[in-house]
Amino acid sequence: xxxxxxxxxxxxxxxxxxxxxxxxxxxxxxxxxxxxxxxxxxxxxxxxxxxxxxxxxxxxxxxxxxxxxxxxxxxxxxxxxxxxxxxxxxxxxxxxxxxxxxxxxx
Length: 106
What we know:
The longest helix is centred in the middle third of the chain and has 20 residues, at 26-45. The protein has helices spanning 26-45, 51-68, 77-89; strands spanning 2-3, 6-7. By secondary structure, the chain is mainly α. The two termini are 41 Å apart.
């Protein structure tokens, strides 16, 4: 696309520059930080634990890490889940409101 001898290129990852390290928003880092903080606190409280208890203690960090892990076409799983829930909870029937003179009526 050339107009008057100038070419304009828009990079595909323009929103990526607004993210921390190209992947995370401040809320994402907050969610992950709280999960890790809870896990570390629980590790200090429960010492000498069984395998099942260790899994339960590690769950906050694992869940928060899963929510902020990057996925294709969305910046993370939390955004993907938010979009899915929004789609499923919103209205499914769309009414025609056109721009033509008759507005869809005969």
